[in-house]
Amino acid sequence: MKKHRQRQIRDHEQENALFGRRAIQAFIGIIILTCVLIANLYHLQVQDYGEYKERSNRNSIKLLPVAPNRGRIYDRNGVILADNIPVCSLEITPDKVQNLPQVLIQLQKLLGISDQDIAAFNKAKLQTQAFKPVTLIAQMNNKQVAVFSVNEFEYPGVNIDAYLERYYPYGASLTHLLGYVGKINDRDIAALKKSGKYENYKATRTIGKLGIEHYYEDLLHGKTGYETVEVNSHGRVVRTLSYVPPVAGKDLKLTIDINLQLYAQKLLTLQQKDPTTGLMVTKVRRGAIVAMNPKNGAILAMVSSPSYNPNLFVNGISSKAYAALLNDPAHPLINRATLGLYPPGSTVKPELAAAGLTTGVITVNTIRNDHGWWRIPNSKSRKFRDDRVQGFANVDIYKAIEDSVNTYFYQVAYGLGIDRLSMWMTKFGYGQHSGIDINEDSTGNMPTRAWKMARFHRPWMQGDTIPLGIGQGYWTATPIQIAKATSVVAEDGIEHRPHLLKDIIDGKTQQPVTFADFKPLSSVPQKDWAIIKKGMELVVEKGTASKIFQHMKFQVAGKTGTSQVYSLTDTEHYNANEVTEHFKDHALFTGFAPADDPSILVTVVLEHGGWGWHAAPFARDIMEYVLLKPTLRPQADELVQQPSPSLADLTKMSPVATTTGTPAPAKAD
Asked: Which of 37, 66, 129, 459 has the most crowded Cβ, counting Cβ within 10 A?
């Protein structure tokens, strides 16, 4: 027992000794490993710090937005009106370029960049954050792309960016209708942020500014996609890690017929020989033409002349070019069809007749003995004169419309009074937005008592009402408003909204668009519409436009109008041959055909065109173009060479001058 206890004690001592030796060995090992680790950390963090920092900076992961393809715009027959074409631009990211001024000098020499482009880049650079790319060349040609691609490695931070750019193949022919896209500016960004749409535009260069491009921006733009990429220190993509494709914008099909649009535009041009040089020059008439289907309000053509090339604005128009447009005395920037304000003249007499007949101010049997002038009853007011000095003798409602007898409608305006007159004309759309689907749409001015008090701080007088009977005085309207009002007559009181959009195309799906009609004028009896339209038929059969509509293959109903540019006193006279062009009155015509079942309505305004019937040939030509067999219609490529029969007719027809030496009447229609 004793020996066994001693053996146990000896074993314990031996184990302690063994543990001590092993602990020392382990401690030494830990020290050695710690030293090795410290040495490696020193090597990584101190000796090779610069190399590894450069490696870490060399590649990075970025989330890049991908711009969607903008939807195309087509005419009613599928012809492309607004397209997207591939373009290469040269982009510079300033904070990735060392010695930027020197690089610009080298690139200018290498690629033949103009001083203007360099100046534009420097200006844009000041307005852009340094880490964002700035465009140096907006549209590179093939040679520039090839040359830079070979030398790209020498220019870190400089890249070629391929994208789709908006292009308008018909140039100025559709500007006031399509509008255009332009570079996104600070105002656009603020509006996008306010509407919560900014994130969807981070990769987009342009946005709709005017016309259809602006009005239907949400449909055309699409949805931005994203890709996760690895880029090197030069900002170039090494590989794509993930990709969420963008959703393209929807295509739009319009109600416009491009061949009719070009034809209408052609009518407003005239080839003339310059008396000095003997060369043929093109004269552009100022004015507007609106052609629409009165059954549904679809706009078939809408021309504002003169116009301008929208492609100038896509990448940003130069200050010089914009100043030239802005200072052009012909004002090409104004959409005359929807923003041009003109006294509607006698084109409103059918609508005034509807108001007079419905309210009982006149009847179909009302006859006035016109002796050339009219005065407010029981007063010593000024004489409101007719266009014929000797008058028209006995006049009923049919003849009043046929010959555009001013004195008859002075009486109608007087009988209605300003309150009823303005209320009724508002029902026809005057004094309101037409509802056309572009934002450039003026209300014009349908005067009221309240309007005059607010505008001039004066009460309304009876003498203010009388000129409204012939569409003059304080009354102004746009061509699209006149067309809309005429369509209400053509449709027996149904007011269709004028519109340009026909279908929305999403991939292979084509969805027709419908526009709600306005409340019809049900208070006007059917028999009164028949009276008014018969009077308008007489206008083209034997009235103020009869010379223009002879030998027609279909019946037309229409109304001429003369919009006074300046007023005449009782002692002044008007002779169109004696005044300069800018003092001549505006010529207007509005009408529809076939008269018994209209499918085409045309409204024409010719600035300083003289007499109202001067605008009628333009409407006649468009009606014939639409209603005759399609085989007789000129196509777009033929219109360039086709002369304008309307203007040829006008050169043969001289305006009728009034007799001098007598008080001047209101202008003839």
From this structure: 66
